[in-house]
Design brief:
Layout: H1 5-25, H2 38-46, H3 59-67, H4 71-83, H5 90-103, H6 107-115, H7 122-134, H8 138-150, H9 160-171, H10 174-187, H11 193-205, H12 209-217, H13 224-236, H14 240-249, H15 255-267, H16 271-280, H17 286-298, H18 302-311, H19 317-329, H20 333-345, H21 352-364, H22 381-391, H23 411-421
Helix pairs in contact: 3-4, 5-7, 6-7, 7-8, 7-9, 8-9, 9-10, 9-11, 10-11, 11-12, 11-13, 12-13, 13-14, 13-15, 14-15, 15-16, 15-17, 16-17, 17-18, 17-19, 18-19, 19-20, 19-21, 20-21, 21-22
Keywords: Repeat
PPR repeats: 223-253, 254-288, 316-350
GO molecular function: RNA binding
Length: 422
């Protein structure tokens, strides 16, 4: 009888495979009779109730949240976290860095601590970059993003990219914004609403409204911030026609939407269109009124500017400064000084713009004006002194430094003005 060797070999390999499966199903041999099985070890670990869990109820973290106010206390907490072995825990390190940035605003110290963390996460990076932004150091935030986050392969989250997009917009770097946008697409965050809104603003600030519109049109979900960012971008880039198209397509508008369009028409001097929009507004705030007053002030329409100023239900320092500068440009020095007197009597605190207008009007007025209200009650005397040095004594600080091309007062007038105000 002939034997099929091929079939015989396959049957032998099948038998070996079945035997090996039977051997695998058997438990491993015990070295000692009292050794626990792996199932018993897993069950013991899972049922262990005294294993420490790290949350805000931990005593060290409670002390961190409640009593840390200076660098000495922070160093003590840092020492306790290091000795207890908790500083390398992502949650503990994140809370420590967040508290340090919030209380002492010591970004450099946070970066030093970050370098000693073995496994940092996106929350730590976002906290430190936000601290750089808060201290007006966008370049430091961008440098940290590339050198400390990307270089260490820390995965970003949906909070990272809006922050980096804001940094790129603040420094006006289109190239960096495009690079970050490419990473957004790579990591799959291009459909995130907050990320998309941040890049609409970034491209608009950099003057690329076409790219901003592309991001706007590719969004399946849009909110009021998306529409307002697109309108604001068109307005600030001088494309009022496209901004008005977006404005007319909106179903829901807020006060920022109306103010953006009004400021756009004011910027190009079209006060008729601005006034028509102003009259259609369902509600107005002080910014809306200031836009109209400033628009008429730009075209030197004193009567209409004064009319809107008098009709304002609520004023701020900007409202008064617009009128003071208008009277100064129109050489109505007496009205400028009278308005400043009304301003300080109304308990408004003048700022540098107010003081420049009133001091310039005082120098150009025939008889130097003496306010019936002491400015020391409303303004820091050092601010007055610095402005006097620039306006009254041109041999030390020329008037051109404040862009006031007028001659200085005489020595007699200087003494009268200084004695009357100081």
């Amino acid at each position: 009888m002939a034997i099929n060797h091929k079939y015989y070999k396959h049957s032998l390999s099948l038998n070996k495979f079945l035997k090996s499966k039977k051997n695998l199903s058997k438990p491993p041999p015990k070295l000692f009779p009292n050794d626990p099985t792996p199932q018993q070890i897993t069950k013991t670990i899972s049922n262990k109730s005294d294993a420490p869990t790290l949350d805000l109820n931990h005593p060290i973290l409670q002390k961190l949240e409640q009593s840390c106010a200076n660098i000495k206390q922070f160093n003590q907490i840092h020492t306790q976290l290091t000795v207890s072995g908790l500083f390398q825990h992502p949650f503990a390190a994140s809370r420590y860095i967040k508290k340090l940035c919030a209380c002492l605003n010591s970004v450099s110290h946070c970066v030093t601590l970050y370098d000693h963390i073995k496994e940092p996460d996106a929350f730590m990076c976002n906290t430190i970059m936000r601290s750089f932004v808060n201290v007006n150091d966008p370049y430091g935030a961008l440098r940290f993003y590339y050198e400390k986050m990307i270089a260490k392969w820390v995965l970003p989250n949906h909070y990272t990219f809006p922050l980096v997009a804001k940094v790129c917009a603040d420094i006006g770097s289109l190239r960096e914004g495009q690079k970050v946008h490419a990473l957004v697409v790579k990591f799959g965050f291009e459909l995130d609403l907050f990320v998309r809104n941040s890049f609409i603003r970034c491209y608009s600030v950099c003057g690329r409204t076409s790219d901003a519109r592309m991001v706007f049109d590719n969004g399946f979900v849009l909110d009021l911030v998306s529409w307002n960012s697109m309108i604001d971008g068109y307005v600030k880039n001088g494309e009022l026609g496209l901004a008005r198209e977006i404005f007319d397509e909106m179903y829901d508008r807020d006060i920022f939407t109306w103010n953006s369009m009004i400021s756009g028409y004011v910027g190009v001097g079209d006060m008729d269109a601005a006034r028509r929009l102003f009259e259609k507004m369902p509600s107005r705030d002080v910014v809306s009124w200031n836009c109209m007053v400033d628009g008429f002030a730009r075209i030197k329409d004193v009567s209409m500017a004064a009319k809107f100023f008098d009709e304002m239900p609520l004023r701020n320092v900007v409202s008064w400064n617009i009128m003071l500068a208008l009277y100064l440009r129109c050489k109505k020095y007496n009205d400028c000084l009278r308005f400043f007197d009304m301003m300080v009597r109304g308990n408004f605190v003048p700022d540098e713009a107010s003081l420049v207008s009133v001091l310039t009007a005082s120098m150009l007025f025939k008889n130097f004006w003496i306010s019936s209200v002491s400015p020391r009650e409303h303004v820091d005397s050092r601010r007055w002194t610095n402005l006097f040095k620039q306006l009254i004594f041109p041999e030390k600080e020329p008037c051109n430094s404040l862009k006031i091309p007028y001659p200085a007062a005489t020595c007699k007038d200087k003494v009268i003005l200084i004695q009357s105000v100081l």
